[in-house]
């Protein structure tokens, strides 16, 4: 990678030239402890400007080169995704630190949406052996098919961060990702007339969203390239034509041979452009002691 920032190792992901790996050195992590300790999580949740304060502290450690790099990656159609993590997980890096680090990262690229499921700007959720939820999000032994976020809300969802806070007794559950330009059937489905029709999108009760929205599965960017807003659980087909289209879409996404399947260590945060990257999760191997905790933040780019 041509980008060099002191204190950060920046490399191409081993499974995709579109994904950038960014490892944060121990020195940078140690320098973050003091500014991060200035605010507890309650302050970050109740006073939005404090989130920008810790983001600025993080960016200052790179001489403000990090924010420039992250924005270049996330907005570039050729990449659009980075995985950022501490190079080493030490005793100084606990769940609170990782929430603050994730907060700092996203506030260098944009403004988070309110997450109705959690009632704050971020959501933390566990995946365990037993589950009674109404969403695939917590179904450990079911494949979470490729999808984008924010399909059922009115807020603009330009980007998504998923951070791994904890993992115990886990086998399987790898992250799956697919860039639209690598999907073999993109043009075929994008050019289907049904793709541009309005679909109704709802959500289960756990999402705490009391309305439904309407939008097409596909739209176009300023250069006429395909953009997608899709998740398998939430569209409500109006007729046979829409139902058959959604099945064809679902099958062709899951059958793609160009999915990037990767294991993410604890402390990793995946940040992806939500218009042309889809993400999912492989099933876990059954284990009664299985536990994974994730953090999610999603939002819009800054408008300058």
Can you tag this structure with a few keywords?
304 residues; alpha+beta; Double-stranded beta-helix; 8-stranded mixed sheet; 4-stranded antiparallel sheet; 17 strands
Briefly say what this structure is.
The chain is α+β, with helices and mostly antiparallel strands and 304 residues long. The chain is built from 7 helices and 17 strands. The strands form 4 sheets. Strands 1, 2, 3, 4, 5, 7, 15 and 17 form an 8-stranded mixed beta sheet that branches. Strands 6-16-8-14 form a 4-stranded antiparallel beta sheet, with helices on one face.
Note the run of SSEs as H and E. Answer: EEHHHHEHEEEEEHEEEEEHEEEE
> What percentage of the residues does DSSP assign to strands (E)?
25-35%
CATH architecture of one domain: 4-Layer Sandwich
CATH superfamily of one domain: Clavaminate synthase-like
Taking all residues together, what is the mean pLDDT?
94
The main sheet comes to:
8 strands, mixed
Multimeric state:
single chain
Q: Whole-Å distance between the termini?
A: 28 Å
Q: Could you name the CATH topology of one domain?
A: Double-stranded beta-helix
- CATH level-1 class of one domain: Alpha Beta
Strands, count: 17
Give a structural overview.
The structure is a single chain. With 304 residues, the chain is α+β, with helices and mostly antiparallel strands. It has a domain at 8-135 and 157-167 and 265-273 and 286-301: 4-Layer Sandwich (Double-stranded beta-helix). The protein contains seven helices and 17 strands. The strands form four sheets. Strands 1, 2, 3, 4, 5, 7, 15 and 17 form an eight-stranded mixed β-sheet that branches. The chain is globular. It starts with 7 loop residues before the first strand and ends with a strand. The mean pLDDT is 94.
């Amino acid at each position: 990678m041509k980008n060099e920032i002191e204190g950060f190792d920046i490399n191409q992901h081993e499974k995709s030239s579109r994904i950038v790996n960014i490892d944060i050195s121990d020195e940078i992590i140690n320098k973050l402890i003091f500014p991060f300790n200035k605010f507890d999580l309650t302050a970050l949740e109740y006073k939005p400007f404090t989130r920008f304060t810790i983001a600025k502290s993080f960016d200052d450690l790179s001489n403000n080169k990090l924010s420039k790099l992250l924005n270049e990656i996330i907005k570039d159609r050729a990449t659009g995704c980075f995985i950022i993590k501490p190079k080493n997980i030490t005793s100084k890096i606990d769940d609170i630190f990782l929430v603050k680090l994730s907060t700092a990262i996203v506030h260098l690229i944009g403004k988070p949406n309110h997450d109705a499921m959690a009632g704050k700007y971020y959501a933390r959720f566990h995946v365990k052996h037993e589950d009674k939820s109404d969403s695939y999000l917590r179904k450990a032994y079911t494949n979470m098919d490729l999808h984008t976020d924010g399909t059922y809300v009115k807020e603009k969802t330009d980007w998504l961060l998923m951070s791994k806070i904890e993992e115990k007794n886990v086998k399987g559950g790898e992250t799956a990702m697919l860039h639209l330009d690598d999907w073999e059937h993109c043009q075929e489905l994008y050019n289907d007339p049904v793709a541009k029709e309005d679909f109704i999108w709802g959500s289960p009760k756990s999402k705490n969203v009391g309305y439904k929205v309407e939008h097409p599965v596909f739209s176009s960017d300023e250069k006429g390239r395909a953009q997608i807003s899709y998740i398998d659980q939430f569209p409500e087909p109006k007729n046979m034509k829409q139902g058959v289209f959604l099945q064809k879409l679902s099958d062709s996404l899951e059958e793609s041979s160009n999915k990037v399947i990767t294991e993410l260590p604890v402390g990793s945060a995946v940040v992806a452009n939500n218009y042309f990257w889809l993400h999912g999760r492989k099933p876990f191997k059954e284990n009664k002691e299985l536990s994974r905790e994730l953090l999610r933040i999603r939002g819009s780019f800054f408008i300058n």
